[in-house]
Amino acid sequence: MKNFKTSLVFVLLGLLLFSCKKATTKTSKPVSFSVLKTTEKIIIDGKMNEAIWKKSAICSLPNFYNYKKASETQKTAFRMLWDDKNLYLFFQCEDQYINAKETKRDGLPFLDDCVEFFLIPAPEPLNMHFCFEVNANKAINDIVFLNNIYNGKDTAIKSFNPEIEIEVDINGTVNNNSDIDKGWSMEFSIPLKSFNRMNEFHPIAEGTNWSYLVVRQDRNKLDTEDRTTSTNFKIENFAEKDVHQPTMFGLLEFK
Fold it and tell me: 0.85 exceeded by the pTM?
């Protein structure tokens, strides 16, 4: 039954992507981020022990939303690698108060201290993207987000549950705001087979460009769901439409 559901999801996605219109606004954007190919084995442990990580490009998240004071604009550094089997992501988050309540898969990790990675396996802003949202408890919400699916409405396919490996390294205490934390890092791998045949429309290879967005949710209080959001690309109408806007994505290039 699980295999049938997975196959059905990707049949529908294949039809959607094949017939998918490009997002309303098409912009010509330069490549902003280079992703190195690794021949070194990557151990998913939440730490950058492999030498190749030190050579990887660093992407910052300088665009902040919903913050009330300067101390709520904490820094994030994002890195990425790939090989013939996986994508590898690494986040380093400065964080004075690490808070995360969600523990279930496909829950609401984006209400916590959370990192998010959105990806379109094409160089243009299509009306769909893969989303990986993971909080400091390693609770993941992995979905396929569909923009303007009908009458201007968006929706998400929640049954997209690939076998992702995740580890976190926390330098502080989770859900204890009586002390000052230093931060946390997260490392995870996404098997390329997770996209089934979706990435065959514009296959991953050296020189391939895909569209992407990196997001962080920073929750500094336990008693409210208030949080600061930061992104690597500026979201011009964030208050109206949030971060799920493919026309605001940029380009990465696999090296």
Answer: yes
